[in-house]
Structures
1.
Amino acid sequence: MTEFVDSLLALIPEWGALSLALITFLSCLAVPIPASLAMMAGGAFAAAGDLDPLAISLGALGGALLGDQSGYLVGRFGGSLITRHRRRRDPADVVQKGGGRSAALLARARGLLDRHGAIGIFLSRWLLAPLGPWMNLTAGAVGFSWPRFTLWAGLGEIVWVGLYVGLGMVFVESFPLVAEFLGDLSMALVLLMAALAIAWWLWRHGRGHEDRGKT
Amino acid sequence: MNRRTALVVLLVLSLALAGLFAARAVMVAMIWREEGPVATLPIAPWMTPRYIVRAYHLPPSEMRALLDLAPGEGGRLTLEEIAARRGVPVETLIARIEKALPANAPAAREAPSEEDDHRP
């Protein structure tokens, strides 16, 4: 393990729940910090009798929920700022060049999130964790319903924290290996989904080309 | 390069990367299966005495003796902090613990094979 990870792990027994809250908070804001590994370490220290499992779980959950809300707020504020700025600059220009297209894109993203957002937000907390921070920003930017975001993000974070603290308590001896395995698996899943999304787009637009060619 | 070509490149790239991560996951799983449920890490400065006792199956009394800890002392302190308080390098404590590890621990596992080589 790297020196950074070693010093991160050294913080956990000393600062307990507080260190985990800070780590999960930062990870929800896309700071590249190994939060899953940290939670597993917390679980392992809890199993060894150094930390209280409930306290560290609540700490990690608190940090994650706060991080999600911050990401959502940044997205919401940033999103409205961009659209207002563009509108003010030159309305006609925006509609003609790109502006109309990006507005349509935003509307489509919003439609997609309205239809499938709940499950996306839920899964991007734990199974597809690398997508989490970007999902928060997007949900805020497209104006996804705040109560629904809070509900599904909260449920997802409960699964994330429970899963990783629990795994740490079970795999006390080998938690870094388990963390690496799950991290790699999560990345493979995210990349596979990205590939599927691109393939789907290409297939749809490829068909459009052929149709246009025939007429 | 038009948008279509760029997307095809992106598609191939993400599939290749997905394969790479999946292969790494399989490799880690194989190491994990081979090692079994024993500690796979060398003793590190971030570990606490209780973590070492639990993960490396060392008797608590032996751990206390190795680190000169009074009963109840050293809870939640990492080896690094204990070394700093004792004024010794953390490597000294790590070497002391690794020597005392049961034979199935990773640090102790290599030592016996060396001895085997020296046998006539």
2.
Amino acid sequence: MDKDFAARRRRDLIIAAVLAAIAALTPLFVKDVVVQNILILTLMYAGLSQSWNILSGYCGQISLGHALYFGLGAYTTELLFTKFGVLPWFGMLAGGVVSALIAMGLGYPFFRLRGHYFVIATIVIAEIGLLLFHNWEWAGAAMGITIPIRGDSWLKFQFLRTKLPYFYFALALCCLAWFVTWWLENSKWGFWWRAVKDNPDAAESLGVDVFNSKMGAAAVSAFLVAVGGSFYAQFVSYIDPESVMGFQFSLLMALPAVLGGIGTLWGPVLGAAILIPLTELTRFKLGGSGRGVDLIVYGTLIVLISLALPRGLLSLFSRPKKTGAAR
Amino acid sequence: MTAQAIIQSLASGLLMGLLYGLIAVGLALIFGLMDVTNFAHGEFLMIAMYLSFFLFAFFAIDPLLSAPLVAAALFVFGAVIYLLIVRFAMRAKANAGMVQIFTTFGLAIVMRGLAQFFFTPDYRSIPQSWLGGKTISIAGIFLPEPQLVGALVSIAAFAGLYVFIHRTDFGRAIEATREDPGAVALVGIDKNRVFAFGWGLGAALVGLAGAIMASFFYIYPDVGASFALIAYVTVALGGFGSVFGAFAGGIIVGLVEATTALVLPPSLKSVGIYAVYLLVVFIRPRGLFGSI
Amino acid sequence: MTITRRDVLLGATATAALVPLAARAQTSEVVIGVIYPFSGGSAQQGVDAQKAYETALEVINKDTDFDLPLAKGEGLPGLGGAKIRLVFADHQADPQKGRAEAERLITQEKVCAIIGTYQSAVAVTVSQICERYQVPFVSADNSSPSLHRRGLKYYFRAAPHDEMYSAAMFDFFDAMKKKGTKIETLSLFHEDTIFGTDSGNAQAKIAGERAYKIVTDIKYRANSPSLSAEVQQLKSANADVLMPSSYTTDGILLVKTMAELGYKPNAIVAQDAGFSEKALYDAVGDKLEGVISRGTFSLDLAQKRPMVGKINEMFKTRSGKDFNDLTSRQFMGLIILADAISRAKSTDGEKIRDALAATDIPGEQTIMPWKRVKFDEMGQNNDADPVLLQYVGGKFVTIFPPQAAIAEAIWPMK
């Protein structure tokens, strides 16, 4: 069994490296900025969903409030940049650290909650964050923050027309989130999380440090999501509370993982690769009608996939042969 | 701030809170029965409001009169949604919680899209009704009639529901199904029929709320969104699985909202509701009266 | 792309061969992007905007005899009678989506200009993208004053912004005070979005300058389930004038709640938005006899300029509504943009920009009560005079400024 597991991990790593290499080469063939835009969003949401998956999929703590960390990342970066001239690269790290600390601070009371009480608590805390930013004059309140654009610069991570730097950053973020997940799967934490998810009481009695392992998952997850938020702020070059901390981001982080396969290594990537292009294309083709057809198509797909494939789209690819460690 | 202003705020908050309770109780019932959270609950409310509106616009039936009709229609709608969709979501062998959340969430998006498609996104409202715009004034405290009737309907609905669950055979069947779905099958209760009935009843209750609200609120495809989160918080605050909890939760939410607006800028009044929810579950992780 | 271009060339050659003296079309079609919310909470505004733009399109592309730029004759004379085609895109009130749609329209649909957007937050990102691609952006109906102050070369706004609107309100108050009306205290009531915040800030600033006292300044959450607490505070403050900046939904709830809590203000002077929407008056019009709203458009103008009435009828057959403050600005925005494209004799972004910057249309050749359309170096038209309208007997009459007014203001409101 251990040998199978090790072999699967090696295979996953090779597949990931090949996919990443192929992805890195796509800009050679894809020159259209609209397609590039879709690719960037897909990679970003794949990365975000992968990070969300660490806490909610592996550790089983379903959060629908990750927009809080996304927004904190975006705001920390841009407040530091516009108010104090701190370069976004440092702002990105700062945003990640702030989010991780807040995630751990919230973890103390939150991890006592279970099931729907926990889910609603996460929604509610993100809403509080949204309302506070909406009323915080110094941070721009409803007006938001416009990032001053002075021209292409790696130092300030801003580019006028070319999308390639954003593309490679999103790819790097996605790979990082994937690799962290891959690495954690086989770590002490990874085993603990699986135990916590299966049966927290039994895990505790077996000596698993349930609480600290949840805290670790929350911190890693929040850190990566905040980096994604910083990236998004630089990419869009304008943020306001609604557009970085709204509930829709919490959902958009969860959906790819759920549709692809929650708590799996490849689910978020697969889910994002299908969901994000689909939402963009339905809006392009049907959105201008004003009749809500895009919503009907989008919603129906979510219902059908959830019902038909409860383990996510990934279950279509899984081999009938049992691979021991794969749950 | 005068004492009268404070009393007025509390009175308004109480009336609104009873209405929140009525909106939320269907959600609490469905959850208590089968452990499913209906993320399309706000959209059920939206459908009910549209039904009231169209009954008024085409047949000149006052929303108060049409309330039983709307509730009946929503009963059928809820039961059908259960039989066509939710039933299959509950069969999921893996990730049952996520499947239920996202099935009902997808349903919410579809319902919003359909409403936009068939009803257009225009804002509707019922300009003249028996209750709309009327108000009772007692010693300078104003009690708007629509909300007042809403509060009375809410109290009656909770009382009726209590009697129904504890005093009728079908109510006991619901309780029994909730406690042990496997065992009730042995005594000849069809689980699906009970669940379909539960969904119908839950939808009928939110239908009642929608009909009352139609006489004083605006109606458009996204109207449910403003109430959905409040309904979830109300149910969780009262405690999942407890119908009485939803009642108490509604009142608390209404009063907290009103008092927060007295001390904080009104744009932050929801923060008060959310903070109270967090405070309650930190102290009592299963809400005030929750059993699950 | 190559196919259509060849088709066009073939067509042009064939026409040229048959009718040697006919003007040769260099471009048979000019594509303009229109970005609005077509789904979500403000989808209705997108749908109404679509009707307004289609009305403008009819005026431009067909031969009509209005005294508007481009009305006479078909299409754009400067481009050999080329027709305008509109491509509509949905931004769902999300700045990121607005940005992506703008980029798609520019690079894939090859639009030569973009017009939009209703929400100011989306106008921020759409105008940034337009700037980067050097494609003009006409901000038809955004009223946030911060928009034109960002040093953008390709940004144009023909309509007034909220500071101009608010100044007109205070001019009106000053005039009323001279006549002996008591106006000393004000209650501000605005939503927590860019629109509401900007409007509230502008009003607070001018009130301070002109020594009016603001007794309450209430910022509320847009689309709240209840406004009882807010109305309660307005009622206890009981200012001489209530100044709401609210969209349709909150406007309806505000008026209903006021009636329910027995609050009857002396006067309401609204920052347009919901208070120019038919849906709001359908719902609570009976409680709003005498409400005053700012605007840029007034159907009263039809008495002086008959074409205003005729164009309004064209719009009404499409939408079932009269022009309001938003739809009239959208209509006029497209006319102004198309006029510039025609004068530029090109679909090149920079040339259209220069033509827009050189725009000088006298007020009589618009459907608005404006002096003229001429942009300053920031792309703002400062000659777009706002008007104040009062809702009397089921319709709006112009009460301010005096040169546009057809009636005296009724004060206090009923």
